Amino acid sequence: MNLLLIGVLLAIIAIAYQIGLTKSRHLAGKGNNSAALHSRPGYYGAMVALWCGIPAFLILMVWNLVEPSILKQVVLSHLPEQISAGLDPASLGVVVDRVQAIASGFGVSDTPQPYELAAAEQLARVAVIGTYAKLAVVIAAALAGLVWAKQRISAQLRARNQVEKTINIGLALCSGVAILTTLGIVLSMFGEAMRFFSFVSPIDFFFGTVWDPGFSTSGDAEGSYGLLPLLWGTLMVSGIALLVAVPVGLMIAIYLAEYASPKFRSWAKPTIEVLAGIPTIVYGVFALMIIGPFIKSLGAMVGLHINATSALTAGFVMGIMIIPFVSSLSDDIITQVPRALRDGSLGLGATKSETIRQVVIPAALPGIIGAFLLAASRAIGETMIVVLAAGNSPQLHGNPLEAVSTVTITIVNQLTGDTDFASPQALVAFALGLTLFVITLGLNIIALIIVRKYREQYD
């Protein structure tokens, strides 16, 4: 019913736009002389459509939010007092779900009780009435908005101002949703992290060198919760990834921006960027089944023992994954360097390679460094590749040929399986997530500061 109602509303909005457009053109006179109006005719049509659609959609949204609670109260009011009084909240919720299932026509697996059938009958009746009431109220609100907005149309009405103000408010709300979502995530992680620190000292967590959490049902913080092995493994894998991605990605960007023909560039750049669209689980399987055994056999040929699952394997494949981030961002920055700088350098006798090294790259360097830091943030937050290819060994060592564990691996491990989310063994995942968020946020802030402070301004 909601989809049908939305379709009807969209049709009414389209009609409202045409009504507003037609009336404004009528006011403009023959030839649709928009000079006689404050705004162009399209703005009047858009204004009528907005007044028609926005109130109706708001009513529909509020109705859908409130309706489940009202229907639940209808069920509770039609249950016998001895039944509702003798059940705890969880059991009462089960009864309400059963009644709603019976009323919807899906039924239940066992034989329903008579009081459940009676409550379901009343619920179905109220639901039908509510559906028709919602349909009538929403359509009435849309038509009322259409009529009211149509009557307001005049040559002096500042329709453009109203439409543009509404669009600005809509864009601000969209931005607010993103900001509030981020804030909500941070606050939820912060609250759970504080609960974890009531079990484990922050000093032991941030400066501990042993990661060996104990799993118990008593709620005690058994074991060791040292962050340093996980943080070092994360930095090691990310560092290897950047050693792979930064030079390769930068060389690709320089070639595509300075040397490649337009025809080659037109298909080479999208092809490289396809790597960014491959799911990370595919990279993880590729690292586990192909790259890991290959690196192990390659090490055996030269007398080195290399684990198939190691920091080197995970970092190498992760570096391949973030090459498009480095190359695409760097290419966009290099191509923004004005052609006049290149022509001036070439006119003074510099070769093409000298111009790139001494003019183009220095001019684009702040943006390139920002691209590197953004790629580092992407590498630090990667999960599936390290879960499959890093080895999950939370040991504090400096050998990239051995298995390591990262912050993201540990978050997955701590929240997998039957977990009591009130225990420190699960709450530690929120502390780890908050730490990871702070690190990546810091890298992004540094990248923005570098780009804004050292960015070259060209006329």
What keyword list fits this structure?
single chain, 459 residues, mainly alpha, two-stranded antiparallel ribbon, 16 helices, 76% helix, flat
Any overview of this molecule?
It contains 16 helices and 2 strands. It has 459 residues and is an all-alpha fold. It has a two-stranded antiparallel sheet. The longest helix has 39 residues, at 114-152. The two termini are 57 Å apart.
Rg computed from alpha carbons, rounded to a whole number of angstroms: 31 Å
Strand content: under 5%
Low-confidence stretches: none
> What is the average per-residue confidence, as pLDDT, rounded to a whole number?
84
The helical percent reads over 70%
Shape: flat
Count, helices = 16
Strand tally, please?
A: 2
What structural category characterises the helix and strand content?
Answer: mainly alpha
Query: In order across it, which strands form the biggest sheet?
Result: 1-2
* Biggest beta-sheet profile: 2 strands, antiparallel
Distance between the termini: 57 Å
What is the element string, with H for helices and E for strands? HHHHHHHEEHHHHHHHHH
